[in-house]
Amino acid sequence: MRISLLALALVVIPPAQAATPRPAPPPAAPAFTYADLADLAGISPIVADVTVVRATRLKPAQAPGLAPGFARFYVEGAVQALIRGAQGLPGQVSWLVDLPLDARNRVPKLARKTRLLLLATPGGRPGEIRLAAPYAQFAWTPELDVRLRGLLTAMTAADAPPRVTGIGNAFHVLGSLPGESETQIFLRTADNRPISLNILRRPGEQPRWAVALGEMVDEAAGPPAPDSLLWYRLACTLPPALPQTATVELSPADAAAATEDYRFVMAALGRCQRNYATP
């Protein structure tokens, strides 16, 4: 049978239907900064490399306080390595974790043999642990493993910098040349070990500053390296401005100079970046 061109012209071709847009993927969780990990490590007596044996989703009635958009799991895992834990751990441990649902409200999967890094505290029963924070369960990666081990080593070293609790007195003296001066700001620490900030200004030179971890100022000392434990102790603890109590015994001119030098130190330290709330 022959079909005329006229008949073909009368065939109605329906317009193409628009493709159903796919839901946008959930935003990626922000990366953990040095400060985030140091915050967690500081409150976690247990740090373990664990492989998932079984993950069971709990019913809503078994998960009081569960936030909307999350699912709670009871997880059992085999301990591959105890990175920190003075009391030790059995070969298998259990814990609870809340995981976010995806963009389609589907339950996340925590597959068997998934390797995790946990920062935790002891639970109420043998073999039970509790995450130090809701986000203290990490997918294991070689980079994170090295990063955590380095941080824990620095925290437990004999010469680890003390935890700073506040600012003591500040002193400012003029040098023998015009424009030369030195400021020393003493910090308070949790174990009363001495630590001070020292700022030296010389005419025609950029200001120099250093941290002294003792009674004497080491001429070779300098600022702490970024993302180091000493940097964290300072940048994430010190107030943004020098308190007036630190300069109460100084003249107005010396107090102003010490305040400016402290501002210079804080700018040099940089911001203590945290992507997660302090646990």
Structure description:
With 279 residues, the chain is α+β, with helices and mostly antiparallel strands. The protein has 2 domains: 34-156, Beta Barrel (OB fold (Dihydrolipoamide Acetyltransferase, E2P)); 164-269, no CATH class. It has 5 helices and 10 strands, in the order ααββββββαββββαα. Helix 2 (34-42) crosses helix 3.
Write the layout of secondary structure elements.
Layout: H1 5-10, H2 34-42, E1 46-57, E2 70-84, E3 92-100, E4 115-122, E5 129-131, E6 137-139, H3 142-156, E7 164-174, E8 181-189, E9 196-201, E10 208-212, H4 229-235, H5 252-269
Antiparallel strand pairs: 1-2, 1-4, 2-3, 4-5, 4-6, 7-8, 8-9, 9-10
Describe what is shown at a glance.
It contains five helices and ten strands.
